[in-house]
Amino acid sequence: MQMYVPIFLYASETWTLRESEKKKIDVLVMWYWRRMLRIPWNAFRTNKSILEELDITQRLSSMVQARILTFLGHVSRRSRAPDHAEDRHGLTK
Predict the structure, then answer these.
(1) What angle do CA 11, 29, 4 make, to 5 degrees?
(2) Which helix (H) or strand (E) holds 19?
(3) Is the pTM value of this prediction over 0.90?
(4) In three state form, how does the secondary structure of 26-65 look?
(5) Which residues lie closer than 8 Å to 41 by C-beta, 6 or more apart?
(6) What's the Cα-to-Cα distance from 86 to each of 74, 79, 80, 82, rounded to whole Å?
(7) Going residue by residue through the chain (93 aa), what tens digit of pLDDT does each one get?
(8) What value, to the nearest 5°, has the Cα angle with vertex 74 and ends 6 and 3?
(9) For the range 53-58, what are the long-range contacts, defined as Cβ-Cβ under 8 Å and sequence gap of 24 or more?
(10) What pLDDT shows up at residue 41?
């Protein structure tokens, strides 16, 4: 899983993430884990038991949501920056 996480999260800050997309991300990741562990599709295993076996504490959709919120915080603070901030960097009007 660690190989594709940075690739998946690239530019995820700009996504509009709805509940349906979160669910699709979680389904994809669980499919990946089941394939990796060679669990047949008809075996009764809960997602929780698989995540506990692999010691996974945070879902990929939660990581994306956290990155979106962090990015929005940066954007909202930037829009409230005073006008003299440009002067400090040599960028005068």
Answers:
(1) 45
(2) helix 19-36
(3) no
(4) HHHHHHHHHHHCCCCCCCCCCHHHHHHHHCCCCCHHHHHH
(5) 34
(6) 17, 13, 13, 9
(7) 566 677 777 777 778 888 888 889 889 888 988 998 999 988 899 989 998 998 888 888 888 888 888 888 877 787 666 665 555 555 555
(8) 5
(9) 56/1
(10) 84
Q: Which amino acid is at 38?
A: R
Are 64 and 12 within 8 A, CB to CB?
yes
For the chain, what's the residue count?
A: 93
CA 76 to chain centre: 20
3-class secondary-structure state, position 12 = helix
Q: What is the residue extent of each domain of the chain?
A: 5-88
User: Which pLDDT does position 3 carry in this prediction?
Assistant: 67
Residue 64 tokens, joined: 């994306």
